[in-house]
Amino acid sequence: MKKLAETMDLPIISTDDREKQAELQASLCGVLQVIIQKLSSRDDMKPIIVQNADDIMRLFLRVFGCHSSSVHEEAMLAIGALAYATGTEFVKYMPELFKYLQMGLQNFEEYQVCSITVGVIGDICRALDEKILPFCDQIMGLLIQNLQSGALHRSVKPPIFSCFGDIALAIGAHFERYVAPAVQIMQGAAQVCAQMDTLDEELMDYANQLRRSIFEAYSGILQGFKDAKAELMMPYAQHLLQFVELVSKDSLRDESVTKAAVAAMGDLADVVGENTKQLFQNFTFCDEFLNECLESEDEDLKVTARWTQGMIARLVL
Asked: In what residue span(s) does the Importin subunit beta-1/Transportin-1-like TPR repeats domain sit (predicted)?
């Protein structure tokens, strides 16, 4: 921390000085991130981070004054680690931090910064739960704008869908106001996936990332509505199962996509429940798909498939 603070006062005369300062700050932020993660993973050491959190955060906020993407990336990642370590107490930093989160989300040119900012918002949601709510209108507005923009690098879009799930899990039934525009964009992205060239390896990698993130978004939204307003997802249930069916027929999908698809099916059956009985009876692919998953060598996938099978069986038997 002391070393990072000292970099703020380094004499900057030339561009070379500025670059050296940025390099040093990025490196020190990276070191702090690792320290925060290591200490916060131990119950006996976590209080050290909590006690010093104000000073650490003050330093990170000062670092944002250095207009360097590499510094911003490392500082953001360290802030994500600090959010995890401090939990709901992190909310006190949000008023000042929020402008930098907004700047990160709007940084299309340095899209890695944008992508990392999206991930850190997910970290903050997991730390704050409902306390993130006052910031959600602006966050969701920016995320939706980003997804609709042709100027944003496509690699940022899958993390945004995953972030929808993080936000929904954090705020629960309050996600109602966002569900229609969010799912509409998810449906559009699912359609794009269906039209991608399966012979282009790079494009297929992207399609897999996109499909996995859409399923993760569905799961997060469904779980967020589990204790209240589950019926809000009923209008989208058929599309979700159609998307799962489409993916189940694709031999080029990777295991992470399969796992996310199976989990989303299980969440649909678990959360929306009896109302989906007829749908699951109509979509006959489910049994075959789940049986295929149960034969996988991936133990996690088998566990998820068994759980999903149980959720569906509870409805249709």
From this structure: 3-282
| Alpha carbon distance 287, 51 (integer Å) | 52
Question: Nearest 5 degrees, angle CA 84-CA 90-CA 95?
Answer: 135
pLDDT of residue 13: 59
Token output for 304 = 């998820």
Entry field: residues in the chain: 317
Task: Tell me the C-alpha to C-alpha distance, in Å, between residue 122 and each of 84, 92, 94, 259, 274.
Answer: 10, 17, 14, 20, 31
Which residue matches tokens 């249709």?
Answer: 316
Residue 82: helix, strand or coil by DSSP? helix
Q: Are 173 and 129 in contact (CB under 8 A)?
A: no
Q: Round to whole Å and give the CA distance between 221 and 254.
A: 23
CA atoms of 61 and 67, how far apart (whole Å): 12
What pTM value is reported for the model?
A: 0.91
> Other CB atoms closer than 10 Å to residue 177's CB: what's the count?
12
Lowest mean pLDDT among 8-22, 182-196, 202-216, 300-314: 8-22
Task: Give the tokens for residue 288.
Answer: 């075959």
Residue range 48-89, pLDDT digits in tens: 888 999 999 998 898 887 777 888 899 999 999 999 999 999
The rounded distance, in Å, linking the Cα atoms of 85 and 51 is 11
Where helices occur in the chain by DSSP H, the ranges are 2-7, 15-40, 46-63, 69-86, 94-105, 111-128, 136-148, 157-171, 176-194, 201-224, 234-248, 255-272, 277-282, 285-294, 299-316
Of 283, 147, 137, residue with least CA distance to 217? 147
CB 153 within 8 A of CB 206: no
d(CA 270, CA 232): 14
pLDDT tens sequence across 171-211: 999 999 999 999 999 999 999 988 887 778 888 899 999 99
Domain locations in the chain as residue ranges: 1-132
